[in-house]
Amino acid sequence: MFQYIAAVACVAALTACGGGAKTPTVVVPPQPAFQLTDTVVGTGTQATAGDLVVINFTGYLYDSSKPGFKGDKVESSVDTGKPATPFTVGVGGVVTGWDQAILGVAPVAAMKVGGKRTAILPANLVYGANSRAVPDPNPYGYKAIPAYSAIVYDFELVNVVKGSTPVVVPPPTSLLSVDTLVGTGATVAAGQTVTVNYALYLYDGTRTDLRGPQVESNMGATAQDFVLTNSNVITGWVQGIPGMKVGGKRTLTIPPDLGYGAVAHGTIPPNSTLIFDIVLVGVK
Questions:
Q1: Hey, which residues does 50 pair with through a beta bridge?
Q2: What stretches in the chain show pLDDT beneath 50?
Q3: pLDDT value, residue 85
Q4: Does residue 34 contact residue 125 with C-beta atoms inside 8 Å?
Q5: Which H helix or E strand runs over 235?
Q6: Is 252 inside any structural domain?
Q7: What is the DSSP secondary structure assignment for residue 93, as one 8-state letter?
Q8: Does 219 reside within a domain?
Q9: Same domain, 83 and 182
Q10: Does residue 26 sit within a domain?
Q11: How would you label 146-165 residue by residue, b for 16+ Cβ within 10 Å and e otherwise?
Q12: Measured between alpha carbons, how far is 48 from 88 in angstroms, rounded to an integer?
């Protein structure tokens, strides 16, 4: 988990999801609901955001046909005979689903030392559009993690070292545009067709760079064309890209009402604030 470097999937249907185009064509497997179940209630120190925690964990691909929905095993600290590397919970140091599983989501309380909990995590709380190959070496016979995989985790909270409460930056309520590199080419106007590379992240106010899980990207791949009209892309792009110059880079932080609103879009949950890193390659 901690050495995992996301191999970002350059989704073939970026024209559907990328840039917020409104007709998704990416085939995302049916996702289970987020669920937490305590198998042992701990009696020790309770974890809170900002604490350093030590856990044991085992992860399985979600499989609705298997007992406990546990399919192929994909990772485990238990197999190694020692707990996972300690990490600070609730600050974005691990995937969002781990933070939520350990800290709890109402009405389920945060874990206490000695407690054991099973978490069913849909793809958007784990690796999203990213995939992971079979580890090499692979002494425990783990399976690969395909893109858009839901995962079932068994957690045991081994120890808690109390820390300070992290600062949480609330998401903006209006479009935020920041140029990280000003281009020198043609300037984009509303309604034009733009050729872009981009990466999309879910907003996470606990992280230093505010970027949570990456859910889409065509960075490093062929740039794609999008028409800057409301019938083709989300309003955040219609409002946020005009004024860019070819060769420029811009970060757009887009509130839900200018993105996908209350409707889930692939692995993007309802009411999500989005962060797009955009590179403008051309204008047509």
A1: none
A2: 1-17, 22-25
A3: 93
A4: yes
A5: helix 235-240
A6: yes
A7: S
A8: yes
A9: no
A10: no
A11: ebbbbbbbbbbbbbbeebee
A12: 10
